[in-house]
Write a structure and sequence with these properties.
This protein is mainly alpha-helical. It is 50% helix and 0% strand. This is Reverse transcriptase zinc-binding domain-containing protein.
Length: 261
């Protein structure tokens, strides 16, 4: 059921819930029609769930939260830069290296990520549970998690120090993206590199948020910076066979490795 949510079938992602659910042939559309909320008819179990099983259910509901189901409409993925040809690795590489600023018309910019405030507004979780996982006593919004949280926001300063530039952070996602990607001045190569790093930072923070929320695992910000470095290095090596630099050089002088310092 729903291979397009999280990259694999829900029965594979949540085997314990699949074992306990009564209707194993239910589709996501069935769940929506019967009710996804706690106690809704979409969730019928062979026995009462334990507390840790309830946590799995909340994680599953979080995945389903941002799904829109439309009857009689073909369900498919569309690669926006090339709707006809579809996604290719070379196409993604061209998007990052052609100097064009990618569209920010995303779930992030539109505030459609399953943030706790969004979940609370829709009654998925109580308002009292909508605070940031860092323990900073602020409610969780996209701007807070990625830009303003006293814990996660410090990652941007660490990244700038690694690259070797200074900058000022905006508290608006779209403005922050533009400021960050242009902070080293004009130039196609510089802009493309900083777009990649910005997206890596967002990805690392989002995964850290989920690890803290669902797995009770905390990673310190300097280690998050290391993840950004490793992910960006891995991406560059995977997409450019001529990129021969290793971790030591990448850690110490990323722009020199790219020939854009």
């Amino acid at each position: 059921m729903a291979r397009w949510i999280g990259g694999s079938l829900l029965c594979v992602q949540f085997p314990r819930l699949f074992t306990l659910v009564e209707n194993k042939n239910a589709t996501v559309a069935n769940l929506f029609s019967l009710g996804l909320m706690h106690g809704g008819e979409g969730w019928r179990w062979r026995c009462r769930l334990w507390a840790w099983e309830e946590e799995l259910l909340e994680e599953c509901r979080t995945l389903l939260f941002d799904v829109s189901v439309f009857p009689h409409v073909s369900d498919k993925w569309v690669w926006t830069p090339d709707p006809g040809g579809g996604y290719t690795v070379s196409g993604a590489y061209d998007l990052l290296t052609n100097g064009a600023t990618p569209s920010m018309n995303t779930h992030l910019e539109l505030d459609r990520l399953p943030m706790k405030t969004n979940l609370a507004i829709r009654g998925v979780i109580p308002t009292s549970a909508s605070y940031c996982v860092s323990g900073c006593d602020h409610v969780e919004t996209a701007e807070h998690i990625f830009l303003n949280c006293t814990t996660f926001a410090s990652l941007w300063q660490h990244v700038r120090e690694w690259i070797g530039f200074v900058g000022v952070d905006s508290d608006n996602i779209s403005d922050h993206f533009l400021q960050f990607t242009l902070m080293t001045g004009p130039g196609k190569a510089k802009c493309s590199f900083l777009q990649l790093i910005w997206l890596m930072c967002i990805w690392v923070v989002w995964n850290e948020r989920n690890n803290r929320l669902f797995n009770n695992v905390v990673t310190l910000v300097p280690c998050l910076l290391d993840k950004v470095k490793l992910l960006s290095l891995g991406w560059l090596k995977a997409n450019n066979v001529m990129f021969v630099f290793g971790t030591h050089m990448w850690w110490s002088s990323s722009l020199t490795c790219l020939g854009i310092d």
